[in-house]
Amino acid sequence: MTTQASSQGGWRSNKWVRAAIPALLLHCSIGTVYCWSIFSENIAEYIGFSKAATEWAFSFAIFFLGMSAAFMGNIVEKNIHKSSLIAAVFFAAGMFGTGFFIRYGGAHPKSLVSLIGIYVCYGFIMGIGLGTGYLSPVKTLMLWFQDRKGLATGLAVAGFGAAKAIASPIMQWMLNSLGEGGIYKMFMILAVVYFIMMFIGHLLLKKPDGWHEPQKKEKSQGILATLRTKPLTNYIGIWLMFYINITCGLALISQEKMIVKCIGLAASAGLISTVSAIFNAGGRLGFSAWADMLKDRNTIYKLIFILSIAFTALVMVTGGIENGEGNVLLVILVLGLIFVVNAGYGGGFSNVPTLLSDHYGMGSISAIHGITLSAWAFAGLTGNQMATYIVNHFGKTVERTLADGSVISVNPTGYQAVLYATLVLYIIALVLCMFLVKPTDKALAAKAQAHRR
Asked: Which of 82-96, 264-278, 410-424 has the lowest mean pLDDT?
């Protein structure tokens, strides 16, 4: 095969240099969007606004990530060099601009100019870089690693998940070391660092020499017609279960720090956050690599939803969040829920492009994957907000005294109530997964062959 042959040559046609490494450089940069919780309070304090007001910057970033992926999919399909360059420029510009407006907000406290500037830079401009950067290497990886597509995409998307674990301690160190105005200095410095990383990834990224990209006139059908090659409910099922998995993941992850404090592990919150990020990255790589060995990749989603339902139900029945402090078994159950949801959240991302390629082929996969990422956009607006609404309207805030004598305010009943909503949604996702998403042609052929035996 041309791809395999070319991969045996020099670095210019090596699949690791031309696909895997640039994918990691791109995804390890843009994945730092999930470090928001590390510095969100610092931003709010520095510019004189409430944390709730600044939180919208993160929601906008995820929204525009998904929407830019949906609208930029065709550009990625046609020219990965243009799309990867757009990603590097917009992501770095958005990060640098965020630093600029934080600096402005420090000099002019409570200025709407600084808040809106952060929304535009971190949310809209960075969001465009996130969406195009996320999509750019995925199809290229699947083309270079055609026999292990899941492993390849899992490797890149794992970089997106691992970025938080890698960057969080570095960002915390920078905030502690840069002195007055460290928050805006950090953004400006990292903007330059990430631009260099992404630009190197842009230069290295290349499709296999043997791949002929179909031109518009060669494509017999558009994206909608491609989706209609299977019942349209099949794609709707994939979109909805992807949306629900992200919504539930964000709902729990957004409250993770406070849940950890409720069960008496406030002193270990940073370590647990790092471990959960490792599970997130591990789920992206592990679940997608496992799917390569299955007849139908949809089986992975069934497993993710079943595990999430089981752990959510266990913590609900035992009241693990409310009663976990001082109870080792309940602490283990709550941590198990956090780690399983993180792994399933990551695995849901890494399996989407390969599941779509199994159903609809490789011809327009970047465009179809981009449209599917619109589910991420809407989940970014609903997941965190759903959890915040429930916590604010159920239960009551209580004070807990930590080992060091400090007092924190938490709402164990509210965090527990979030699980009722996520359990219902996970059950709906499992039903969709089982009854709307049809088996692939490969799975049907394998089943027919087994019957013949």
From this structure: 264-278
Which CATH number fits the domain 14-207, given the four candidates 2.40.10.220, 1.10.3470.10, 1.10.10.10, 1.20.1250.20? Answer: 1.20.1250.20
Q: How many CA atoms lie within 13 A of 423 on its CB side?
A: 15
The top-level CATH class assigned to 223-446 is mainly alpha
Q: Is 419 exposed, middle or buried (0-12, 13-18, 19+ CB in 10 A)?
A: buried
Estimate the share of the chain in helix, then strand, then coil, as percent rounded to the nearest 5: 80, 0, 15
> In angstroms, rounded to a whole number, what is the distance separating the alpha carbons of residues 342 and 284?
10
pLDDT at 443: 65
Mean pLDDT of the chain: 88
- Given a cut of 60, whether residue 215 has pLDDT beyond it is no
76-87 residues labelled b (16+ CB within 10 A) or e (exposed): bbeebeebbbbb
Domain pair 14-207 / 223-446, same fold: yes
Largest CA distance in the chain: 76
User: In this predicted model, what pLDDT tens digit does every residue of 190-207 receive, in sequence order?
Assistant: 999 999 999 999 999 988
Please give the distance of CA 247 from its chain centroid, rounded to a whole number: 11
Residue boundaries of the structural domains of the chain: 14-207, 223-446
Higher pLDDT, 17 or 3: 17
**What is the per-residue pLDDT across 429-452, written as a single tens digit (0 to 9) for each?**
999 999 999 887 766 665 566 556
Q: Helix crossing, 412-435 with 374-393: angle to 10°?
A: 150
- For 408, the 3-state DSSP assignment is strand
What does DSSP say about strands 407-410 and 398-401: parallel, antiparallel, or unpaired? antiparallel
**Interatomic CA distance for residues 444 and 427, integer angstroms:** 25
